[in-house]
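ok trying this again, last paste got cut off
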Amino acid sequence: MAKVLVSDPIDQVGIDILSQVAQVDVKTGLPAEELVKIIPEYDALMLRSGTRVTKEIIEAGTQLKIIGRAGVGVDNIDVPAATRQGIVVVNSPEGNTIAAAEHALAMMLSLSRHIPDANQSVKNKKWDRKKFVGAEVYKKTLGVVGLGKIGSHVANVAKSMGMKLLAYDPFISQDRAEQLGCTLVDLDLLFSESDYITLHIPKTTETNHLINKDALAKMKPTTRIINCARGGIIDEDALAEALAAGQIAGAALDVFEEEPLGESKLRDLDNIILTPHLGASTAEAQVNVAIDVAEQIRDVLLGLPARSAVNIPGLTPDVMEKMRPYLQLAETLGNLVGQLAGGRIERLTVRLQGELATSNSQPIVVASIKGLLSQALRERVNYVNAAIEAKERGIRIIETRDAAIRDYSGSLHLSAQGSMGEHSVTGALLSDGEIRITDVDAFPINVPPSNYMLFTVHRDMPGIIGKIGSLLGSFNVNIASMQVGRKIVRGDAVMAVSLDDPLPEGLLSEIIKVAGIRDAYTVKL
């Protein structure tokens, strides 16, 4: 049975899901050196923000298949190291969406109405109403930096409260922004025009200290900043100086450059609200992220794909669901052409045809590479490390598109150069999602893939099919289906035979001896 280590507190519902398929050990608060010692025993690791998964831990986890972060960010996981080891890293990008959005809105309203200070004042037996005169958000301008799921929810609620919305997000279309009631602007305009600025972006090299001294200088003295996204997006020293000088009106932070927050000038300011990373801390969110990540770990341990892998190129949950049939097609064709080309593969060309030419090509290319390498690497190759494995083996990957419609509205063509020469295959999906191999080495055929297949290149002449059928029968090999494709009568042809059983040893050499057979290949899919 597989073993899963849970290294941070996780809701019991997640433990119950994992227990369906694995032995689950809950060991929280482990020091790094202890984690390095025990991680070789485990197939999966589930954590929250408390555990730092370093390169040393990942390299020690020789059995690890998946690392699951019950939350959005994966800052505490060395994702590149996991990718190189072929370990899937998953998170829960939607499990705490509502919780994080509501916390940002709560921070904005609390900041506007001085709620924390007013609460403390009353508890201190004071009644100083004049001291806590607030500001309304109605008709004010909210600048939303990042229109992902959380930012979009904040925008929707803010719009219903009568706020004017500006937004900055270089990855969102104008149409999408307009649907949310936002006007897309550049950062400088957002900084200078907004009464409130809320951040909903990841921490990257580009976003590190996005709110810095220069950005703060562009803001109005009435501006209030809310950050419930990631620490480090704001230069905290610059923010403290701006707040102390009255350069901006206030700020509310739930995340910090270093957590827990240590010595900081921010603690001494009256015009700031500080909370200890509570964005996802609702009972509902804790259950949601535990379920989401536990289900993904369970699925990966059962050999199924993860919904929200952060290190599988191009495979976000919505893309995965939409493209799943085409990924299976690509993997099958990659496996097939890799076996036909044989041995050391030097080049793989992936051509998306027809309607497929307008699709996101990256996941299809990755799936094709995974199929190509599957015979050589078996379970060592997956969607995470396929591109890395191909690069390390010196395989040149070429991607092309051809929008012309052929026999199928969308099809995929792969060609590979290997030790057995150059071979090509084409495949498509039927309306019910069934895969069809439609072309082998430019010979038209129409067969479904099967576990065991035989391909022959032969002269188009009477008796060939009968001879092959008789020979297979004499070895007690049952034929599931057979089809011949040819370009011209009495020229060369390709035969594709689906078999119920693998070819016995020595049978392939007997097939090649049959008069008219030029070559023959066995394939296991």
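PB: full thing came through this time. The two ends are 26 Å apart (CA to CA).
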